[in-house]
Every structure is written in structure tokens, then in C-alpha cells.
Give the backbone structure.
Amino acid sequence: MFLMLSKKILLSLFLISCLSLTANDDPFEEINRSIWNINEALDDNFAKPIAEAYDSITPTFVQTGITNFFRNINEVDNTINQLLQGKPVLAINDFTRFLINSTIGLAGLIDVASSMGLERHREDFGQTLGMWGFSQGPYLMLPILGPSTPRDLMSRPITSFLSGTFAIDDTEVRLGLTALDALETRARLLDVETLIIGDKYTFIRDSYLQATEFEAKDGIVEEDAFLDDMDDFFIDDLELDSEENL
């Protein structure tokens, strides 16, 4: 199930344990759970073992470099969606990050921009649609792709086009990068799984729905001192700052 699990889950797995969420947004729960069971079987037998092997044999600095590389690619998506959301200053910030990390940072392998004080953001077209007032709709569990909603499903083609790999003509290279991105994402979720409590399906569903709303509203939620203290924890995708800036 985690094979192509959205990176939003990295933000939300701990958040959901701190915020209440009314989760009556799953009218297709019976079908969703059936697809979930299939995804879980695929994950248990293929994706997770491969991710565990990758995590055990790949040096930390190499993993960090790969993570930075894909985050740098996503800066194009971030920049355009910042503009679509009416945030030109943040768009300049994100595009500057892309320029600096693509050059001085050796194609994004080193996050030089963060060490220069340029904050990293996460924006996609689903968040843009949410800011424009589009409802996320009912929860959907997609085969292999995992959690989604009609709003996020509608945004996938745009986000995919802006992912940075669309310009690669070599199909094998493009597919290879896509597979590596999925592997890197799955490996980063290994430690986060320990935060899951109760029914796994329900936990993932509520986490995903909470995260999509959290991000669409730019993190504007009810004031909570504990969550304020945890901001850096969320933004760093559960990684140490030292690893982030390698």
C-alpha cells in the first residue's frame, strides 16, 4: 500500500494523533478496504522488503542526496503553484532554491539553499485547487497509488507534468527515476510506521484527509501550542536537520 503513498503522509502521521478529525468522508469504505488489502499484500511482499534492503545497504549520505535530488525537482511544481495561489514572493524563493541547488548543489544532491536561509515548501496542484475553493470530496483508495480524493486525483496529471521528469525523452531513464522516487519515498516511511495506532486503514485515511486540508489551508488550524512546537518536526519530514542539509 505504501508503494506510491503520497508524501503528505510524512506530515500527517503524527499530526493526526494531536488533532481531532470527523472522518465521515469515506462513503466507499467497503470498496476502499478491498483495494487497501490488495495494496497491503503488494507492499508486504514487494515494496517494503525492497525498501528495507535499500535502507540497510545504502549509506545515509547517499539516501539524503537522493532525497534532496527529488525535492529539488519538485521545486518547479512548488514555484508554479505558488504563483497560481497568488504568492509571488514564495514563488521567487522556491525558484531561487531550484537554481541554487541545481548548480551549486550539484543537480540538487546537496541542499545548499536551506543552509542559505531559503525555506523549503511543499505545494502541488491539489493544494492550489483547495485554495481556490474546490472541495476534496470523498476518500478514495487507488490500486498501487494509495490514498487520494477526487480533487487530488484531478490534480495528478498537472503535478506529474510539472514533476521535472516530463522532459526526459528516454523512457527507460524516466521510468527508472520514477521507480527510484517511489523507493526513496517508501524507505523514508519505514520509521514513520511505528506511529500508526489502532486500525491501520482508518489511521491512514484520517491522516491523509487531515493532511490535505492542513496543506490546502497553509497550515491554518486551531491554535495549539504543542503543534507550534512541532512545526520544524513536520517540515523536515521527520529527518534531522543535519541530514536535510548534507
Notes: The first strand starts at residue 140 and ends at 142.
